[in-house]
Amino acid sequence: MTVLEHAPSPDSLFERIEPLLARVSKPVQYVGGELNSVVKDWDATDVRWCLSYPDAYEIGLPNQGIAILYEVLNERDWILAERTYAVWGDMEALMREHGVPQFTLDGHRPVGAFDVFGLSFATELGYTNMLTELDLAGIPLHAVDRREHDPIVLAGGHAAFNPEPIADFIDAAVLGDGEEIALAISEVVREWKAEGRPDGRDGLLMRLAASGGVYVPKFYDTDHLPDGRIRRIAPNRSGVPYTVRKHTLMDLDAWPYPKKPLVPMAETVHERYSVEIFRGCTRGCRFCQAGMITRPVRERSIETIGSMVAAGIEATGLEEVGLLSLSSADHSEIGEVAHQLADRYDGTNVSLSLPSTRVDAFNIDLANELSRNGRRSGLTFAPEGGSQRLRQVINKMVTDEDLIRTVSAAYASGWRQVKLYFMCGLPTETDEDVLAIADLTKRVIDTGRRVSGRRDIRCTVSIGGFVPKPHTPFQWAAQCEAEVVDDRLLKLRRAVQQDKQYAKAIGFRYHDGKPGMVEGLLSRGDRRVGRVIEAVWRDGGRFDGWSEHFSYERWMRCAEEALAGTGVDVAWFTTRERDHNEVLPWDHLDSGLDRDWLWEDWQDALDEREVEDCRWTPCFDCGVCPQMDTSIQMGPTGRTLLPIAQVRQGLAATPSSAGAPAL
Ligand code: SF4
């Protein structure tokens, strides 16, 4: 796409977009106008954000992070926020043919006209889509080539905890919770504009970097040792801090978003109203980046949860409510939350769900409570590792007996289908650890048949390939080779299917290990990986999170070409174990976790030693609370949902009088 020499007009492009719609698949995803969407007067606002989850509309629209920021920003009368998503190949081709730039769904304005282009990455596999969006927007791909009028390209989301592979393409990155920092950035942009944009684009980036809460990659230089490892990453100008800290929102009750989420025009992956019931997790599963980087635990109160559910249903008309978090059953008052919500919506069409469940019988009571209205989907538990030994390595404190007790309670309560989630390729894993999944699953079926007295019960085993992630104890681990993962999964499949007694009762779902290698490259890569991403994109790489679009062969071919002469390759970034002294590409980005604590936890993993959850035991000094000046916040508060009145079919839910004020 042509790089524009001046800022594009913010006027709507819809007249140019509309003729293209009849010629593309699912055109409704490009028209906007969803219930609760906002179109503001451009000239009446000071700071304008374009927000993107760089995937297709059906994946991007339900993204909770974008939904929250969209509301938080638009609630300020001086800020305007619109959304854009990745367009499918047919639309991309037509946009290029007709010179239509990447546009927002709300005002159909060109993305290049905004002050800030904020992208949220839940996964690294969205990086090539970011390049398509930039290119279609007419924004130079490389930050160094951008001009004064180009938006500041800002990355957030979990993948931003190591943004080095995309350092060439972004102007800045933020770590952690976005609500407060998005407003703080807006203030900085407003002031800088009001002052006549002193020192241009770099002047603005310098103000953001100097705050210590925004990472600006161009203000840091990376040196390498002759063997390819990083010698150091350091600021290249004064006033820029050595480390950049993550943001932690401490009072979830004061930020009850989303209040009015968008109701999709086209089919999306989730059509439910989701309330985050707490953030953070301290269970300490060593593979889990989300758990590590979102510490400490901060609960939303039962009152705010109740008022958000009521208001959210009313604002959207949605009938499914998800109580979200990394481990929802761990909320200190989850029993009361489930019981009181089930009471309130008894006899209505509102269904409640708890997407993530831990392995214990308490969850069966919860599931029974939440499915009072009669809807029973399968129950999912995540033992993650097949053998007890491996579960000690990954700090998943679940025994075989715990699992058998839990599924026994589930089948005895009338559930016919249980799903179990495991990972393959974990550190220290052997064939025996993976084959233990077959034995465990057969015990599950035997137990189910015995307690239910029926033959028609099922267990689905779902297996994902493990990818070591930054800011976890496994950040130093060697990733298991794709061939080894595939071989173990094949053996497991045979072990399950050869036994005719169980073959029909056990479903088996897994992906091959290859996408995991690319994810591993992008997760733990450094700035040299940027050239691989660009080469893949130039070769046609798009929508890498979709198996039908992902090409392992393309990634490997492009990596070989792009990394030629650097002395490093895909294996160097993925299957190589790091030692304690190696400078990691994300060491200057502070998630609050103490590096030495992470290393000790890695050594504990190798020694198969477990660490307790600090919610119930004394602090074990992971570093987050003192480092970030935060603390664990949890109940029980002993409060109730108000009012407790039951909602009858056809009547609107009444929000509780409690709940948080807007800002
Ligand atoms: S600093 Fe202590 S209390 Fe805070 S999350 Fe870490 S282990 Fe838990």
Tell me the major beta sheet.
Answer: 5 strands, parallel
Using the 3D structure, state the CATH architecture of the largest domain.
3-Layer(aba) Sandwich
The span between the termini is 41 Å
Based on Cα principal axes, name the global outline. Answer: globular
Topology:
Blueprint: H1 14-21, E1 47-53, H2 57-60, H3 64-74, E2 79-85, H4 89-98, E3 116-120, H5 127-137, E4 152-156, E5 172-173, H6 179-194, H7 200-210, E6 220-224, E7 230-235, E8 244-245, E9 273-276, E10 278-279, H8 289-293, E11 298-299, H9 302-316, E12 320-324, H10 334-344, E13 351-353, H11 362-370, E14 379-384, H12 388-393, H13 400-412, E15 417-424, H14 431-452, E16 458-465, H15 482-497, H16 500-503, E17 506-510, H17 514-523, H18 530-538, H19 552-562, H20 570-574, E18 589-590, H21 595-606, H22 624-628
Helix pairs in contact: 1-4, 5-18, 6-7, 13-14, 14-15, 18-19
The structure holds iron/sulfur cluster.
The site of iron/sulfur cluster has 12 residues, from helix 22.
Task: Put the structure in a nutshell.
With 663 residues, the chain is an alpha/beta fold.
Please describe the structure with a list of short key phrases separated by commas or semicolons:
663 residues, alpha/beta, four-stranded parallel sheet, binds iron/sulfur cluster, iron-sulfur cluster binding, Radical SAM family uncharacterized protein, Elp3/MiaA/NifB-like_rSAM, rSAM, catalytic activity
